[in-house]
## 1
Amino acid sequence: MVHFVGPVTFAQLYSHAATSETAALRRFATLLEPKSGTELEAMARESSALTARYFGKAIRLFAPLYLSNECINTCAYCGFSRDNPIVRVTLEVEQMAAEARYLAAEGFRSILLVAGEHPKFVSNGYLERCVARLREEVPSISLEVGPMETEEYRPLVAAGAEGLVVYQETYHRETYAELHVAGPKKNFDWRLECPERAYTAGFRRLGIGALFGLYDWKYEALALARHLEYLLRRCWKAQLTVSLPRMRPAAGEFIPRFSLPDREYVQLVCALRICFPQVGIVLSTREPAGLRDALIPLGITMMSAGSHTEPGGYTGQGKESLHLTVRGRAQSEIGGAETATGQFDIADERSAEQIANVLRARGYEAVWKDWDAAILSNG
Ligand code: SF4
């Protein structure tokens, strides 16, 4: 089991055995233990009441906008992994803007820009230009891209990005080393310290998470909670969110090594809400519709909807530049493909409007823009 104690960086915390834990973490550990039906219902009631108290009956909706599925990393579990023979593309800035206009017409005012890590395609001010252009279409922009230096983040914040999402994937170092076969992502600590660099650069929304399926779910959950607890103290001006993505089918056909069943997934959401009542919990379209609907009152504060995980997936932008790569090299043929390959298959294919209707039917408001941005920037 990992332990975090100590003063300065999370890496230092990570390497020490715990001599003391906060009450929130102590309770979190007990809430992860096996629960009877009655105990789980009690957790659900407490979680639901805390969510209503801290967030009201409102769920913020957002959409991912994939910019590029080029990547130099070999991550054994990811569809975009360098060695996967998939159809790839990087959107031009105006192609990205066309995708954004589609999402804005759907109602979205909050967009997560996603890209693989590639020094040729996702570099040289490309992300900065995308953010600046996107700011003309939507007011709330977050990024999920390869980790950077603090100084590289500053221009992105200046261009209008307010949030940065970086999942550790697995907090288990040996598993991390094994699954990140090649590329800069092999560096566990560089990734772990990324939220702090982003905070120093001025990001005021930070998203962390683990990809469930790579290692034992309780280990990941406890490590994630410890990371969260640390960041709440270290990055106290930021709004923190956690995500609990479970693995989905993807190119490369990686088989999940561990399972996080639905019942334990619900238990984990409730445990996080009970112990960290002020933290946002994100639910993506990786989860099936029925489970997503059931989780609405139990602690979720943000949902993606109508998502595509391939660049150009909303409007077909970038078609003329599609290319197949084999072991990182572009081929002349694309085998009749008409779209780029997605990062993974989504499970909830309902549109944004359908999700908004489900929320309304359950007495919740679908919030398309988070007005906290104005408050945060004045804070
Ligand atoms: S997980 Fe990220 S870094 Fe790894 S292959 Fe996929 S897109 Fe690239």
## 2
Amino acid sequence: MSDWSRAVSNHPAEDLATPVNTITGNRGLQIEEKLIFEQDSPGHCGVDLVDPRPFRTRLGGLERQGAIGLPGLSEPQVVRHFTRLSQKNYAIDSGLYPLGSCTMKHNPRLNEKLARLPGFADIHPLQPVSTVAGALALIDTLAHWLKTLTGMPAIALSPGAGAHGELCGIMSIRAALEGRGERRSRVLVPESAHGTNPATAAACGYAVDPVPANPQGRVDLGALKDRLRTDVAALMLTNPNTCGLFENEILEIAAAVHAAGAFFYCDGANFNAIVGRVRPADLGIDCMHLNLHKTFSTPHGGGGPGSGPVALAASLAPFAPLPWLVHGAGGLELVEHKSGPAEHAIGRLKGFHGQMGMFVRALAYMMSHGADGLRQVAEDAVLNANYLRVRLGADLSLAFPDRCMHEVLFDDRFLKDAGISTLDFAKALIDEGYHPMTIYFPLVVHGALLIEPTETESKASLAQFAAVLKALAAAVRSGDAARFRAAPRLAPRRRLDETAAARKPVLRWRPEPSRVLAAQ
Ligand SMILES: Cc1ncc(COP(=O)(O)O)c(C=O)c1O
């Protein structure tokens, strides 16, 4: 056993029973931080601005009457505030982030450098087209790569996230069906799907019909065929699916969907497992969103920014949202209105062209990897997940024994009778310095633990992670339930009331009544 793993397994549990109280409330160099409004020292300001020269207002009486209510802080206070907040955040730049279905992989710094080039970062979306030829060429090149990798003839780049891409895809499908004079009412969604899939179908006015999984964690083909009637607009399938498995009957699934006159939508959020190896068009897919922020490594999390381009088959291309970038006689041209070739477009889904910064990063990622490098990405993502599957298969309980794709799924059978829940087990990882894996998703597995190591983790990093999980599983077997139920014991905050946080979130700071009176 290495010094490192000994340190992990010989946790001084007795010390933790006594809470450490400090004078400041800080722990070690973890500094408690008040809200910026609570740090208000009225009159303080980080900048000295001269009073503006008198000017004529054109607000017609709509001028603000009172103070805006921003807190007064000096520059060092602001810097410390945001630095301390950033130190509370766990990020892929801090360590392994095995959150299944999220593809938290390293974002190469080269991409950042290129995204900051003034020709991309400083342009304005309303600049005349003739002054942004380089940016348009970049968008066109990105579209070319995405079309090549998916095998699809058209790509809509503007959607701002995976879920937004789903909306784009299902709206295009609805428009295509309406173009055929058909009003279909149901969308089939496998039980293992990401929650955004049924939400999208429902938001577009469809009834969501769940398709059960078979015992191998894949779509039950018989159950799917039973549901495929003439009122089905589309099947929304994720491939590889959220159990981390390739849908190996996908060609039959596509044939059945098409035979029913429906469209085959694929949630391509997990494309990093197959990029460069399989072209979705060859699988019979009509429409698929890609999460640039996952597969092509642009920073994400914490609400964005994301980018969810949608690849479209020829039958759906006429309905792609505006704007379109087309090759005209004079070079690249923007089609911004529903007329001419874009007569059937579903309209605009987003202001301007989409997430330009993400486009630059994604293309930088693709071009620096090259076609062979992208294929290697998929191979390494699958290899890393399978490394963990094999290392941990005897300690945690594998939901499906088969070889997996980019993520490996465990269920809670290994916790049975130990009085420890999946949540307890995941929280214990925080004490060990790891962000937990995704838990309780997908729903088709009891007490799911979904681990996605991603392709950018080294073997050493995965070996360490596996050693920690093995040690924790050994603690489960030894009956050390207290350790898990109390976790996290070492984080700046202990366990939160997650139900109250979700149901009764406090989203707005209000000043103490005494402060309001004092200010009046
Ligand atoms: C399988 C799957 N589908 C859809 C989404 C939604 O993507 P986004 O969070 O960009 O809206 C995700 C997000 O990670 C996902 O994993």
